[in-house]
Design a protein that fits this description.
By secondary structure, the chain is an alpha+beta fold. The protein has helices at 55-67, 164-180, 221-240, 286-294, 300-310, 315-322, 325-336, 341-359, 370-382, 387-400, 404-411, 419-432, 434-441, 446-458, 465-475; strands at 5-16, 71-72, 75-76, 79-82, 92-95, 102-111, 114-127, 131-134, 141-144, 151-157, 193-203, 213-218, 248-253, 258-264, 274-275, 282-283. The longest helix is centred in the middle third of the chain and has 20 residues, at 221-240. 35% of the residues are buried. Its EC number is 6.3.5.-.
Length: 478
């Protein structure tokens, strides 16, 4: 009998904070600067230098922890996490260990139409390490210290995640919340959002955790799910054959879609944590905490629920529109400009996002403004153009930046709704297609579509289909 296993996953998400300077010095956090130019004696760990805490980094960390429903430790400290690696010039990292800035939080995700709560153990502040770059032939490695000292938070989930898909949904939820709060830009391709995953399997019904494997620095939502799916398969095969899973650190190989062993996993005590002697305790008074709490925006799930309630949108639409703060802002501006919410949702999700994604743009860079899109929707509602024509108009609007009425006028897109103008054309179509008329009268509904199609062809697609339908039915006596 094959043993059935339950998957247990916890994620450690590193989020670089959106500050202009590093956490303990005045160096720039600009991404993409020439290697080793955003550095100074402090972040390079020169003897005799002292760290000075960046207040904005603390404020962003507080904001993130509150948005993640954490209890705030208003009196906490920093610690030294000791390890030796080429991209860590001091030989230790300033982090938080037993007294993080936030604890006992949670995030909710939608799984198969139901809300699931994922617990968060801790949110702690720390400095980032540098970046090692290895030559393809293995002959040498280079280190860029620009990232050293960039402020980040680490968000450690409880082992509440039960599938690779849930892990992806959780990570997407974290990104949305951080972007809504303007805590981070969360650009995974730039390393400002990184994820480590811990995964283990245990027999169904067992309460004791299995031996876990850590997957390091996965850089896309899709790869998080793929890496975990592979690990489920690998660990299932190991356990089913009577073997045991080794506690180790692995990486995801994008080329082979597999995970590869890197090293055996060190325990926390190997880091020899002790209180950071060069920093005083961090104390957050009630007024500061209240001010940060009051600055929190409407968060993604709150906005999603409001869209369903206030705009009567389907859950799917509300989920897509609120997953990104830029998309939500654009959609709400279209509705504010007078568009019907469902029509606005359809246009934003399909045409607008389709165009900007194909062009590699953000929605903030969309060539059609929310007001212009609302104007296009209004032209459809007035019957000036059909939906099919509107999509052609939209493409021209994207190319030219012109509004819908101008494009319609300049390109002759006006829909023909005048019955007097259509009468002769419809009469001719009916006379030339007696079989279709008879088929329809005999109960073949599709035959009416053929007559409408011939009329549309004769008018080069400009006739109003609803008017054409009505006039044909009146003329053939049904």
């Amino acid at each position: 009998m094959t043993t059935q296993f339950e998957t247990v996953i916890g994620l450690e998400v590193h989020v670089e904070l959106k500050t202009k300077t590093k956490i303990f010095c005045g160096c720039s956090t600009q991404f993409g600067a020439p290697p080793n130019t955003n550095v100074c004696p402090v972040c390079l760990g020169h003897p005799g230098t002292l760290p000075v805490l960046n207040r904005e980094a603390v404020e962003l960390a507080l904001k993130a922890a509150l948005a993640l429903n954490c209890r705030i430790n208003q009196d906490c400290k920093f610690d030294r996490k000791n390890y030796f690696y080429p991209d860590l010039p001091k030989g230790y990292q300033i982090s938080q260990y037993d007294q993080p800035i936030g604890e006992d939080g949670w995030v909710e995700i939608d799984v198969n139409g139901e809300r699931k709560r994922i617990g968060i153990i801790r949110v702690h502040l720390e400095e980032d390490a540098g970046k090692s770059m290895h030559a393809p032939d293995g002959s040498h490695s280079l280190v860029d210290y620009n990232r050293t000292g960039v402020p980040l938070i680490e968000i450690v989930s409880k082992p509440d995640i039960r599938s690779p898909e849930e892990a992806r949904l959780y990570l997407e939820a974290i990104r949305s919340i951080m972007q809504y709060c303007d805590v981070s830009d969360c650009r995974m391709e730039e390393g400002s959002l990184r994820c480590d995953a811990n995964i283990s399997l245990r027999p169904v019904g067992e309460t004791k955790f299995g031996e876990k494997t850590e997957l390091k620095n996965i850089n896309s939502f899709r790869f998080v799910q793929k890496a975990l799916e592979y690990e489920v398969q690998r660990q299932t095969e190991v356990l089913s054959s009577g073997g045991s899973v080794e506690q180790e650190t692995r990486r995801f190989d994008e080329a082979t879609q597999t995970t590869v062993s890197m090293r055996t996993k060190e325990e926390a005590h190997d880091y020899r944590y002790f209180p950071e002697p060069d920093l005083v305790r961090l104390q957050v008074d009630d007024a500061w905490l209240a001010r940060v709490r009051d600055s929190l925006p409407e968060l993604p799930l709150q906005k999603r629920d409001r869209y369903e309630r206030e705009f009567n949108l389907p859950a799917y639409d509300a989920g897509v529109l609120t997953s990104d703060i830029g998309v939500a802002t654009y959609f709400e501006a279209v509705v504010a400009a007078g568009a019907d919410p469902k029509a606005a949702s359809n246009w934003v999700m399909t045409d607008v996002l389709g165009y900007v994604n194909a062009q590699g743009l953000s929605i903030q860079e969309a060539p059609v403004s929310p007001a212009q899109l609302a104007g296009l929707i209004a032209e459809v509602n007035k019957g000036t153009i059909s939906i099919k024509q509107a999509r052609d108009v939209f493409k021209i609007m994207c190319e030219t930046g012109k509004d819908a009425p101008t494009v319609i006028r300049e390109h002759g897109f006006e829909q023909i709704s005048d019955e007097g103008a259509l009468a002769a054309i419809i009469d001719e179509v009916i006379a030339n297609n007696p079989k279709s008329v008879q088929d329809y009268l005999n109960g073949k509904e599709k035959a009416l579509g053929a007559l409408v199609g011939q009329t549309m062809k004769a008018t080069k697609g400009k006739a109003n289909p609803a008017v054409v339908n009505k006039m044909i039915l009146e003329r053939i006596g049904k």
